[in-house]
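Complex 220.
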Amino acid sequence: MKRAITALVGLGVWVSFGADTMASTEGSATSGNGVQQRLMDGNTRYAGACLSHPNQTEQRRTELAQGQHPFAAIVSCADSRVPPEILFDQGLGDLFVIRLAGNIMDDAALASLEYAVDHLGVRYIMILGHERCGAVEATIQGGETPGHIGSLIKAIQPAVDNAKNQPGDPLDNAVRANVAMVVQQVKSSPPILEELAKKGDLTVLGARYDLDDGRVTILP
Ligand SMILES: [Zn+2]
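Predicted structure with zinc ion bound:
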């Protein structure tokens, strides 16, 4: 991290700081509050139209050419309005991103997460749903589905069923239920993800992106 300035600060403790954040771009800080803070700080910059566009230089590309150490994995919708790198104001090599409509999990998505965790050392996974998700809305509406769209509906349907009798907005309730369902799917996927999550060595949580104000909120 060449932009970092390393300074010796009292009592012989070395502290690195730089234009990016305290979280290491080399991937050592891949779990816990530091990762979440880095993401939320980026989202605050994005929502406030104060982007810093970190790690998007030619130098960064060169640094990464022989290997990647992303600090978080994001599972988000394929929706063109929800690109994690932009809405968290991150750059090359920062986020391991999996995007399928409705931020659903299938075997390939789970395998991708397993790769991120097992080979790249990622210890923080965010399942990111979003306001007015078309895939969730289509599931609520039901009816005929052309082509392969039925596979999306089938994946989301249990969440729609879970949210059915809740008060409030049916679509937003289903979006939140879908995120919660996928969080559980990831956490309980044996052997790699489940084992680490049970030991407390892997953070898996849900969040919701607001299309109107650009803010990401961590879901309970
Ligand atoms: Zn969507």
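The chain has one domain: 28-218.
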